[in-house]
Amino acid sequence: MKPSLRTYKATPESVEQSSREVSAALGMPWRGPGMPRLVMGRREWVALPDLGVSPVRAKTDSGAWNSSLHAEEVTLSENEETVRFMTINHFGQRHACEAAVARIGWVRSSTGVSRQRIFIHTTLELVGGLKLDVVVSLVNRKKMLCPMLLGRRALSGFFLIDPQAAYLLGPRGGLERSC
Question: Domain of 62: which CATH number?
Fold first, then answer.
């Protein structure tokens, strides 16, 4: 018996302005009808102000549904409402973090292995001041180049990814004072 599949439909939010006016207000080039999108590279600099961590190198991954953050020494509270963990910024500095648990769920890795992970809600700040509320899973990404992975749940509706470019939103200097 096959597992049931979920289908998601993206519905653009209704606005009173034309896409040309929205693009002009955001300082984005207008490329025709449809919702305006920011173009980001395969890697971008981000900050996590709720956790006090900045700057962090993040890999954009349109193939991943969930976002994830490097976490070590993960300790779940007895009532499973909060989690404590250690993460690192771009300079290798360790940061002790505590956050409310959004949920605990199963995630299938790129190797096809399913494991249970802890998810938290946090604010993601991009270069230029754009802030997004995101849900991230905590996982050890020590062997990875980027301590954070941005999945399509966080990116959809806002961004297009240029896989040949990196750091299109700006240099990390714009984030170092955000936390």
Answer: 2.40.70.10
Q: Is pLDDT above 70 for 75?
A: yes
**If residue 155 lies in a helix (H) or strand (E), which one and from where to where?**
helix 152-155
* Residue 161: alpha-carbon gap to chain centroid: 13
Predicted pLDDT of residue 120? 96
Classify burial at 179, counting beta carbons within 10 Å of its beta carbon; exposed 0-12, middle 13-18, buried 19 or more: middle
Q: Report if residue 1 sits inside a domain.
A: no
Asked if residue 25 is part of any domain, the answer here is: no
The string of pLDDT tens digits covering residues 102-141 is: 999 998 877 888 899 999 999 999 987 888 899 999 999 9
In this structure, is residue 29 part of a structural domain? no
Q: Which run of H or of E encompasses 107?
A: strand 94-108
Collapsed DSSP state (helix, strand, coil) of residue 140 = coil
Note whether 123 and 50 are within 8 A (CB): yes
Domain tally, the chain = 1
13, burial (CB in 10 Å: exposed 0-12, middle 13-18, buried 19+): exposed
Q: Are 153 and 30 in contact (CB under 8 A)?
A: no
